[in-house]
Design a protein that fits this description.
Elements: E1 6-11, H1 18-32, E2 39-44, H2 45-51, H3 55-71, E3 80-83, H4 89-98, H5 103-107, H6 110-121, H7 133-147, E4 153-155, H8 161-177, E5 186-188, H9 218-227, H10 245-253, H11 256-268, H12 272-299, H13 301-329
Helix pairs in contact: 2-7, 3-12, 4-7, 4-13, 7-8, 9-12, 10-12
The structure holds tryptophan.
Length: 336
């Protein structure tokens, strides 16, 4: 295997929703098909246990995410699609990097600082209460995910920018201390599709509980869309598309031409009920085929396992020899 032109991880705690599709899955599927690129996509299950210690949830989410990505057209023969825990070299590298990472760097991590702030707000004496070393060290695990495959570009949400800076910092320390083994990765944030509005108009996110799952039944999808909040304008009143959640969802899926037409219909006054029904039909149609594949895959998880196993074999053909070089570089030679 070659090093990664693109690499990104998905934490296995939730059920994939429309926001994930637009922000992460759709662009990754496109990249995965480009035969001139080597892209790595993985299920970050060791990240998931930082926040989610419910084994059934982790297991189910891993399958749901894998099935979704495959059903939506990820080219798993061209890219490398694997489960983090199937590549043990990542965890070995994590320890090596841990020994190079100043504690002060991690003290400044947003996720850790937010947890400390929460304790401060409730006047907790011990500011580190309920904070695990997993949460504290999480940026190092992420650095290992990235550096293990010498990734060039890392597409992530805006909230992950600091982790990429830390990864570069840690890589530089290794390169400076030992030898120039690691490439410094670049963060990629796709502004155009990064944020999709959810049921209440805020960013669609599991933490706001306002998501529309990708592969609910048609009936449930319709119900979700009918629940999207709108203003109280009457059926014939001209409406503003720019501030409308329904429109922003439509725009994320429809072609430019269709979007222009819809703008005109907003001006002319389109009833919310009509718009909701059309939005539902549009998305439902788009998801019809992938939904069938998704359901088939969820019924035969062994097919998902087989795809992921192939992926981890490919990943390890890069990580195993590279880890050997890294270990030799730090003075831990193999005896055989
Ligand atoms: N922390 C990332 C997130 O919450 C997921 C992730 C884990 C990741 N390891 C990664 C993303 C490596 C990119 C590269 O979104």
């Amino acid at each position: 295997m070659k090093s990664a032109d693109f690499l990104t991880g998905i934490t296995t705690t939730g059920t994939p929703h429309l926001g994930n599709f637009v922000g992460a899955i759709r662009p990754a599927v496109e990249t995965s098909k480009d035969s001139s690129l080597t892209s790595y996509y993985f299920l970050a299950d060791y990240h998931s246990i930082i926040k989610c210690q419910d084994p059934e949830r982790v297991k189910r989410s891993t399958l749901e995410i894998a099935a979704s990505w495959i059903a939506l057209g990820l080219d798993t023969s061209n890219c490398v699609f694997y489960r983090q825990s199937d590549v043990p070299e990542i965890l070995e590298l994590t320890w090596i990097l841990t020994c190079l990472t100043p504690k002060g760097l991690l003290n400044r991590a947003h996720a850790y600082k937010a947890a400390v702030d929460e304790n401060r707000e409730i006047n907790e004496q011990d500011l580190d209460r309920n904070i695990t070393m997993g949460l504290f060290c999480y940026p190092i695990l992420m650095a290992a995910d990235i550096l293990m495959f010498n990734a060039r570009k890392v597409p992530v949400g805006r909230d992950q920018t600091q982790h990429l800076e830390m990864t570069r910092d840690i890589a530089s320390r290794f390169n400076h201390n030992y030898a120039d083994l690691f490439r410094l990765p670049e963060v990629v944030i796709d502004e155009s599709s990064a944020v999709l509005a959810g049921l209440d108009g805020r960013k669609m996110s599991k933490s706001y509980n306002n998501t529309i799952p990708l592969f609910d039944t048609s009936k449930k999808l319709r119900k979700s869309i009918m629940k999207i909040q709108t203003n109280s304008q009457g059926p014939d009143e001209p409406k503003d598309h720019e501030t409308c959640t329904l429109f922003s969802l439509y725009k994320a899926f429809a072609t430019d031409e269709e979007v222009e037409k819809m703008k005109k219909r907003y001006k002319g006054g389109i009833a919310w009920g009509t718009m909701k029904q059309e939005l539902f039909e549009y998305i439902d149609h788009l998801l019809d085929e992938p939904r069938k594949t998704y359901n088939e895959l969820m019924e035969s998880p062994e097919e998902i396992h087989a795809v992921l196993r192939k992926g981890s074999d490919k990943a390890r053909s890069y990580s195993a020899p590279f880890l050997k070089t890294i270990k030799e570089t730090i003075g831990i030679q193999s005896f055989v």
